[in-house]
Amino acid sequence: MAVCPQELADQVRRLVFEVTPEDFAEEMAAVVGEWETQYAAGTQEDQDAIAAALVELSADIVSYLPRWNLQDEDRYPEVLDTEELIEAAATNCELLEGWGRLEQAKAVQQVAGATATSNLVEITRMTDDEVCNVRWGNDYASGLKSALRRGATLVTTNPQLVNVARTEHPDMWDPVKARLKAEHADADPLQLASLMTMQVVAENARLIRPIWEITGGELGYVSLQLNPTKASDPDAMVDQAEWIFSRMGDLLGGTPNIVFKVPGTKAGLEAAARLTSQAMGVNITVNYSLPQQIAFAEVIEKHSTAQVSFRTQMDGRVDDPIGEELAAAGVEDALGLKTWATAAMRRREFAMLLAEPDEGGRGYKKSFPLGAAGRGPWNITRSLWNGPVTEFITIFPNRQEQFDAIPRVLDPNALDEPVDEAIIKALRQSKIFCQMYEPDGLTVDEFDDFLPCRLTLKQFSEQFEDFVKWLSA
Length: 473
Prior knowledge:
With 473 residues, this protein is of the alpha/beta class. It is 58% helix and 8% strand. Helix 8 crosses helix 9 (170-183), helix 8 (159-168) packs parallel to helix 21 (451-472) and helix 13 packs parallel to helix 16.
């Protein structure tokens, strides 16, 4: 009988996330022994699948992932130390080498080395040790497993990223498209788009779901963006979210570990209020300014019964046009100055919204700040903090590699350091900066026409329409 890749994946998940530290060695030996027997009798396809599963298991246990279960000192009186796990992976690598799979064994060793030197892992461990309060996630629809191995606790998607997933892996998603079209012959193009998006999101949701389960729903979410062409229609956004949420529960076998990306538009305020009042979490996207952050934080605080919601700040997508304005005005070092724009706004946002009332803030707790669309390491290092509310940062895979490429100074209190007043003065020469930085820089009626919002909605809508065309073909 041919081996089943899904059953192999389930065995890996169980060993990493469900088996107790006390039973791990015995359980792993039994599973790997079974795989050895199947490998010896299997076809080439079987052998490839088994070797891939052994690589997954071995790479997982030399990464950050054991922290969630096998090294969780809050759950178990005795846990596995890192050396024990490295030795277990080394034994598996010897088996891979015996099968002539030298490159796959080498891949496990590379994960171990990358984990040991990763700045992202270090930030995550600092947060575990309560000397920092920053969690991070994958800002991409693919590559989640690599991010999880370095401590990621969430993943975000948008029409562009879902579109990328299907173009990067047509062998995976073309058959899914064909199946969905056959199963839902009467579905209109927008329903097909929702169904396909759900498939991409479900793939990520299953990968990260063990973290969601272990943390009782505090971490382990996938952000699913609603149709960006309906960003001015709250009814359409709410209807789509309700439709998806009920079906995602069936796909995942329980409460979906998803939040809905709602745009930072005037209509988005109503949609966020209605969805969070039904205990569906949101992630406010197309969001760039302190006025937007204030308005959405207030709405969520007032209406939400959801366990988790986020307020994204799309760093690079507002810093870039600020830099362009400064350069057009002849401001010296416009490229360097623009890297401080969101950093400056974030300090105001955190002081106003997250600090406790006795410290001059509002003490909001129902939505978490989330930095995204960063352009460089500064977007991470200047945002580290150890405040009362967890800050999240989602990072593109290429930016993850850039951030981990060299050792970096990680100051867990960096966000407490004020931005130089000379930098603020220079940034004020940009109209966009003033609009995003001042609490009254934009009215609610101006949210939709704020330049970064308008440009992003246009891009997301075009990507979504391209996605719909592909589904219709």
